[in-house]
Amino acid sequence: MLSLFRNPIVQAILLSEIFLQIGIWVRNFSVLLYVVEMTNGDALAVSLVSVAEFVPIFVFSFIGGTFADRWRPKRTMVWCDTLSAVSVFAVLLTMIFGSWKAVFFATMFSAILSQFSMPSGLKLFKIHVPEDQIQAGMSIYQTVFALFMVFGPILGTFVYQHFGIQIAIAVMGISFLMSAAALLWRLPGHDPGGEGAGATVLQDMGAGIRYMLSKKVLTLLGACFFAAGLSLGLIQPLGVFLITERLGLTQDNLQWLMTVYGVGMILGGGLTMAFAKAVPPQRLLAFGLFFDALGIGLSGISTVWWLTLGAQFLSGLVLPCIQIGINTMILQNTENQYIGRVNGILNPLFTGAMVVTMSLAGLLKKISSLVSMYEGAALLMIVALVCIVPLYRMPVVAKNEE
C-alpha cells in the first residue's frame, strides 16, 4: 500500500481529485442555495440546477470518452480543469456586471468538461498503475469520494452561507486551477497519445460500441449497471418517508440516516482498501450487491429506529465494494485505447436508469406502498447480482495494448 502512495500518478490523480471535489461540492450546493434564494424557491428554477448537472452525462459522456481515447490524458485533464476555472471566473464577472442567471452556465460547462477529464484519469490509472495495485488504487480513489459525499454538502453550504455566491464561485475557480496545478506538478512529462489517428470521431464511436458488445464481461457489467441504477433511483427520493411513515418521526431525523450512511461509506472504503489485494473485484462486487440488497430490504420493512439505522449503515458500508469492484473490472478487462468509450457507455446506463426510476418514484408510491418500493429496489439489486454471476470465477482477460 505504501508503494501505491509513493506512485506519482496516484499522488497526482488523488490530489487533483481532492481539489476537484472541493470545487464541485461548493458549486453544487452554493448554486442550489443561491437559486432557491433568488427565485423564492421556484420549483422550475431549482430543477434546472439538476438538469445542468445531469444532462451533460447523457449528452457528452460517450463523446467525452471518445475524445479521451483520442487525446493525451494528462493534457486533456489539465486543459479541462483550466477551462473550467476560466469559465467560472467569466461567470463571476457576468454576475457582477450582468445577470445572476449565469450560474447555470457555470454548472453546466464544468459538468461537460468533467465528461472529458474523468475518463482520462481512468486511462492514466490503467497505463501507469501496476495491474496488481489497480484495485487498491480504486479503493483510495473511492474513499476520497465517500469523504466528500459526507462533508461536501457541509462545505458547500458553509461557504455560501458565510461568504456568499461570489466568494463561492471564486473558490470553485481556484479549486479547478489547483487541480490543474497538481497534475502539472506530479504527472510525468511523458504523456502517451491517443489511438484516434486515421479514424474519424464517428468511426471511433462505432468501434467503441462494437468493442463493448464483443466483450462478455463489459456487456454483463452494463446490465449490472442498469439494474443497480434502476434500484437506487427507485428509493433515492423516498428516504424521508422511512422517517415519517415507517418510524413515525419528524422529517428532521433524515439527517441521521444520511450521516450513518455516509459514515458507513467512509468505513467501507477504508476496509476495502485494506483487503483490496486479497479479494478479486468480481467477488467484491457480488458481496456489495448482495448486502446492499439486504440493507435496502431491511430499510423498507423496519419500523424500529435502530434497525433502520443499521440497515442504512450496512448499505453505506458495502457501497464502496460495488463502486471499486465495477471500476476495477472495467480497468482490468478493457484495453487502454477503449477506456474512455467504455466508461462513456456505462456511465449514462447507470445514470439514465437512476433518473428514470427517480422520476417515477412518486407516482409508483401513490399506487403501491413504501414497503413494496423498497422491496422492489432490493429485488432489482438482486437482478444486478444475477447479471454478474457468470463472471464470479473469471480471469482477467484484457491486454494492455498501448
From TrEMBL:
Is Transmembrane a UniProt keyword of this protein?
yes
The record's annotation in Pfam families points to:
MFS_1 (PF07690)
Q: Where in the cell is it found?
A: Cell membrane
According to the UniProt entry, its GO molecular function terms are:
transmembrane transporter activity
> The Major facilitator superfamily (MFS) profile domain covers which part of the protein?
217-402
Please report the record's description of how this protein sits within the membrane.
Multi-pass membrane protein
Its main localization is: membrane
UniProt superkingdom: Bacteria
Q: Does the keyword Transmembrane helix apply?
A: yes
Q: Which GO terms describe its cellular component?
A: plasma membrane
Membrane spanning residue stretches: 12-36, 42-64, 76-97, 103-125, 137-159, 165-185, 217-244, 256-275, 284-307, 313-332, 344-364, 370-392
- Keyword field: Cell membrane, Membrane, Transmembrane, Transmembrane helix, Transport
Q: InterPro entries, from UniProt?
A: MFS (IPR011701), MFS_dom (IPR020846), MFS_trans_sf (IPR036259)
Which PANTHER family does this entry report, sorted A to Z?
MACROLIDE-EFFLUX PROTEIN
What is the protein name given in its UniProt record?
Answer: MFS transporter
